[in-house]
Structure formats: structure tokens, C-alpha cells
Amino acid sequence: MDTIHIQASTDYDVIIERNSLPRIAEFLQAIKPACSVMIVTDDNVGPLYASTVSKSLETAGYTVHTYTFPHGESEKNGHRLMDLMETLGQAKLTRKDLIIALGGGVVGDLAGFAAATFLRGIDYVQIPTSLLAAVDSSVGGKTAVNLDCGKNLWGAFKQPILVLCDPETLSTLPKEEWINGCGEIIKYGFLGHPELLDQLRERPLLQHPKDVDTIITQCVRIKAYVVEVDEKESGLRATLNLGHTFGHGIEHGSAFTIPHGNAVALGLLIMARGAVAHEELDPTIIACIEQLLIAHELPTSTTISRDLILEEASHDKKASGSSITIVVPTGYGTSVLKKVKFEELAAYCIL
Ligand code: NAD
Ligand code: GLY
């Protein structure tokens, strides 16, 4: 078992432990007495794990409701949020009650945002069941839904009171979702962690899935440090957006047929090519990134047009006036933040 304590506006533990899911009530009781709970999940994850969670909670005296919605990024929208809010109201959840996000990043972002504003804010717990959610989205309190004009544009910072990650749940995760999670894991390597890149090059996670527990712990430690230093993204936390400026454009521009982690990995490669063009990165690093992406079956090219990627980037949250803050890879395991004019952003977008 690994426990990583995060000190932020809400202090909480991220617990990474195999077979912890059937014992969720044990972990919860220590921080939240019996109350009404709404498990929010999707139609892939719910049938696999919701009854395990509710059985544990009900035995411990919690009253459990479940809200299940169709899986997929296109469900992370305002209409789905409204439906969830109405369901929370109909279930008469009070400020002392709890939401549990059981699923991948879509469930976590949606349920977290509902928790941020229902009754002006109630507690929530993240139970990540996808690799991407385990290494990234369940930690740090960013919650949001998408708008038609861009990704994650309607959201709030709201830290969970607990993150419980049971890597055993990854046994049912389809291979393409493992690949997707690897996109975010490679990203962490370029945020000051060349040792993670070394490990992924020597032992690609797809071929060594038993490494996943330690990799989750490594990634959560990296993210926890960043969130503790800069919870609301006034500086350091923006580095976690490496690969996202073009990644969000690719994801949204493809109508979500290219999933988030794939798009982030490709966004990293595109930005790295731009960095080489600006003489900010040694060209040999490009081959290294390509090798990592190929080893994890991530894309190294796209049919989405450069114009569309740049257009989508102009709606990015990191934009301010005529400028945008980008994250530029500068070496093997290093990146920096850079504010550029939109005209200059185009020079970084090398497909
Ligand atoms: P997802 O939630 O859509 O999950 C991917 C797919 O895997 C879904 O079909 C889901 O039903 C299925 N799934 C999940 N766990 C499973 C399991 N154990 N067994 C079988 N199927 C399972 O997507 P995701 O990749 O987890 O997350 C992507 C989302 O996370 C995006 O919306 C992205 O914007 C967001 N995100 C948020 C943050 C943050 O800090 N809040 C960070 C990164 C990404
Ligand atoms: N995934 C970016 C962040 O949490 O800040």
C-alpha cells in the first residue's frame, strides 16, 4: 500500500492499494461518518464495480444511490451535469452527504464539478478505474465539463476528501485505455523526471503491466508535489499542461475520436518539433519521444489539420488576450513555461 498525503485547500490522502475497493468503507469511515452517498459512474464501470462499492458502504451504514450515465467524453457536458444535479436534488443529498466518482476521468471531472457546486459544495471521493484517472485526473481537484466551443471550459477547483485507487480494477480496462494512460505518464517524465523516461524506455508499461502500481505511485507523487506548490495554477501547475495546448485541439478537433491521452502524447511530440525549430531542444530528443510513443502504441502523426489545431488552441484556457502560455520541452526530462503571441504559436505547431 502507498499513501500519498496532499496538503491543499482540502488535505487528503491518495491511497494506492490492490483489492482495496471491497474495503472502501474502512477507508471512508475514518474521515466521513455514515451519510447518504451518490455513486456516479458510467455504463462500462458501473456494472463491474458499483455493487462492490455499495455493498461495502451499506454494510457500514451508509445509504447508497447510484447515478449511471453512458460512457464517453461526449457525455462530459452541461446537459449531463444538469441531469446529475437534478438527480442529486431528488435523492435529497444534504451538505453533510457525499458524491463518489467511480470511473475514469470523464466520471471524475463531471462528478467533481457537481460536488463543487451542488448546495454550494459537498464532499466527494475519487475512485479512479482507468489508468489515466489513476495517474492524473483523480488527483489535484480540477473538475470541469466541456462546452461546444472547447474542452473543460466550465469548471472549478474542488479537491476530493479521498482518492482510493485499486489497481486491480485495471484488469478490466481495455488495451486502448492503457495506451491512453501512457500518454499522460510519458508527459510526467518530461516534467523533471528523466528516470521515469529511462524506465519506460527499458520496460515499456504495455509490455510490463505489473509495473503499473509503482508507476501510478511515481506519477501521483509528481502531481502531488506540483499541486501542493501551486494548487490553482498560477505558475508551476501550468507545466502539467505539457502536450495539452495542441492536444486539446486534436482531441476536440477530432470530435473526441482521438482520446485525451493519445492527443496529449501527440501534442507533446508536435511541441517538441516546434522547440527544435526554435533551437530550444536538441533534435535527438525527437527520436527519443517517437520511440517512447511507438513503444506504447501511441500516435506520432494525425490527419487533423494544422489550421484546426491552431484554431482550437485559441480557445484554450491558457490563452490571455493575444498571448498563450505554452509548455516547451527543452531536454530529456525537462520543460519550461513560455508566453508566446498567437502568431508565434503557429511556428511551434509542426505536424
Ligand atoms: P474515460 O473516463 O472516458 O474512460 C475511458 C474508457 O474506459 C471509458 O469508456 C470508461 O467507461 C472505460 N473504463 C474506465 N475504467 C474501466 C475499467 N476499470 N474497466 C473497463 N472499462 C473502464 O476517460 P479517461 O481516459 O479515464 O479520462 C479522460 C478525461 O479525463 C478527459 O475528459 C480529460 O479531459 C480528463 N482529464 C482530467 C484531468 C484533471 O486533472 N481533472 C487530467 C487529465 C485528464
Ligand atoms: N492535468 C492538468 C492538471 O491537473 O493541472
Helix-strand layout with pairing:
Elements: E1 2-6, E2 12-16, H1 24-29, E3 36-42, H2 46-59, E4 63-69, H3 78-90, E5 98-103, H4 105-117, E6 123-128, H5 131-137, E7 142-147, E8 150-157, E9 162-165, H6 175-189, H7 194-202, H8 212-229, H9 244-253, H10 260-277, H11 284-295, H12 306-313, E10 319-320, E11 323-331, E12 334-341, H13 342-348
Parallel strand pairs: 2-9, 3-4, 3-5, 5-6, 6-9
Antiparallel strand pairs: 1-2, 7-8, 10-11, 11-12
The protein binds nicotinamide-adenine-dinucleotide and glycine.
Notable characteristics:
21% strand, 7-stranded mixed sheet, 2 domains, binds nicotinamide-adenine-dinucleotide, 3-stranded antiparallel sheet, Dehydroquinate synthase-like, alpha domain, 13 helices, 351 residues, alpha/beta, binds glycine, Rossmann fold, 12 strands, single chain
Describe the structure.
The chain is of the alpha/beta class. Helix content is about 45%, strand content about 20%. The protein has helices at about 25-30, 45-60, 80-90, 105-115, 130-135, 175-190, 195-200, 210-230, 245-255, 260-275, 285-295, 305-315, 340-350, and strands spanning about 1-5, 10-15, 35-40, 65-70, 100-105, 125-130, 140-145, 150-155, 160-165, 320, 325-330, 335-340. Strands 1-2-9-6-5-3-4 form a 7-stranded mixed sheet, with helices on both faces. Helix 2 links the parallel strand 3 and strand 4. Helix 9 crosses helix 10. The model has no long low-confidence stretch (mean pLDDT about 95). The structure holds nicotinamide-adenine-dinucleotide and glycine. The site of glycine has 6 residues, from loops.
